[in-house]
Structures are given as structure tokens and as C-alpha cells.
Amino acid sequence: MSKKKPPSFGSAIFCNSATQGESGKVDCRGIFTSFLAWSYPTFMRNWQAIVTIYDLPKKTIGVSVAIACGRGKKETLATADVEKREGELGNVLHIPLRYQFHKEGIYNIFFNIIGTVKMLKVPLKVSTQDWPEFTDREIESIRRKKNLPNAIRAVVICSDCSKPYTFEEALLPGHKIADGVELFPNSGFIICESCGTKIYLKDVQGQVRSSMKTAVQRVRKGVE
Ligand SMILES: [Zn+2]
Fold first, then answer.
1. Which letter, b or e, does each residue of 104-142 get, where b requires 16 or more Cβ atoms within 10 Å of its Cβ?
2. Are 158 and 119 within one domain?
3. Separation of alpha carbons 188 and 17, rounded Å
4. What is the mean pLDDT of each run of 10 residues along the chain (224 residues)?
5. pLDDT given at position 179
6. Per-residue confidence (pLDDT) for residue 82, from 0 to 100
7. Is residue 2 part of a domain?
8. How far is the CA of 42 from the centre of ligand 1 (A)?
9. For residue 190, how far is its CA from the centre of ligand 1 (angstroms)?
10. Is residue 146 assigned to a domain?
11. What is the spatial distance between Cα 60 and Cα 151, in angstroms, rounded to a whole number?
12. pLDDT value at position 112?
């Protein structure tokens, strides 16, 4: 009998969310290769890595995932156990990842089959976006057009204790905010009331402003 091949990686991609069906196939939504960031540290970003592994042994193996910026120090992001699925050549794994980026650049995500030298390296870019500013004309459009929101809310969940907070970005002066909603703080962060974690909000605020700006520009161009 020939010697069994050791397990090895096929490929990996990143996406916003993923679910694994009965057959073992993974449905992914929102595949991406880079993160856009409006401020650092970013809000805690959550995403999924979809990894394929071939020649899995009968016993369970472990896979570790680490991140490094450029040639910087590696930090472990996750570890996962992989079991062989009968009748399949390759195995598709989805591993939830979370990380708070401290600077822009090309990061590398390293996948390793624990106890072996088998490694897969996948780049992930983090690029800084300009702070979305609104021109007087854009503000005037928001004031006049009923199909444009003049405020957008974002629910921010504390990454440590899961306490939810609702923030609102309003562009028109004199905007009244509802109970239980706060404006984004000028400091760019809050301290979680429940667990004391510092929650950075500038990145989320930039994202919200960016989506508002896109909506305003579409209306102004007559798309909607
Ligand atoms: Zn908390």
C-alpha cells in the first residue's frame, strides 16, 4: 500500500459572511481582497476566511491563522479543528476572524496546519480613505430631497461584552436625535459602560458618512 499523502492547503479567500451546508459546501457573501479604513485603530473588523485543504487524514487536524503587517510580527487570529468529510477530495473550511487594524498597508494572513510546516500566505490590503466632507450644494440637496436621509444610524456592538450602542450622524443643523441614540463623539471613542473597553468609532463614522455621500451624489446625478 502506498504511503498516504500529508494534508496540504489548496487556496483561501476572504468574505463578509459564510454558512456551511449539509453537503459541506460553503455559501459565501461579499468576497473581498481589501478593507477600506477611515481612521486608526479601526473598529474591530469581523470577517470569514474560506480555506480548502486536501488529503485530510482520518484524525482531526488543527489549523492556525495568524496576521502580520508586511514583514512585521505575527499575531495569532484563530485556531480551528478540521475533520475529514467522507467522499470529498478537498475539504472547505470557514474560519471566523476578527482584528483591529492599527495602520494601513499590505497585511499577510498565514494559515498553518498545526504540527507541520504546511503554510499558506494570503495578502489582505488595508487602505485609508479620505474623510467624507460634504459641500454646501450636497448639504442643500439633503435639506431639499425627501428621498435622502438627513441622518444615518449605526449600531456598534462592544467587541468584548456585546453591549449594543446606537450612534447617529446628522448633517443638518438643529437635527433632533431620538432617545437611546447618541451622536458620534468628537473624541472618536467611547468607553463601554459595561466592561470598560475603549470602542473606537471614527472608522465607523467615516463609513457612515461615506455611504451618505454616495447616496447624495447618486441623487444629484439623477440616478434615483
Ligand atoms: Zn463592553
1. beebbbbbbbeeeebebebebebeeeeebeeeeebeebb
2. no
3. 27
4. 80 95 86 97 95 89 96 95 74 93 97 94 97 92 82 92 94 83 94 96 96 88 67
5. 85
6. 87
7. no
8. 16
9. 10
10. yes
11. 50
12. 97
Ligand 1: centre distance to CA 220 (Å): 40
CA 160 – ligand 1 centroid, Å = 5
- 100 and 148 assigned to the same domain: no
* Distance from the alpha carbon of residue 198 to the mean position of ligand 1, in angstroms: 8
User: Domain check: are 27 and 44 in the same one?
Assistant: yes
Q: What's the gap in Å between 59 CA and the centre of ligand 1?
A: 38
Domain boundary among 67, 100, 128: 128
How far is 49 from 66, CA to CA, in rounded Å? 12
DSSP-derived letter for residue 6 is P
| Domain limits for position 120 | 8-128
Count of structural domains within the chain: 2
180 three-state secondary structure:
coil
**Alpha carbons 82 and 115: distance in angstroms, whole number:** 13
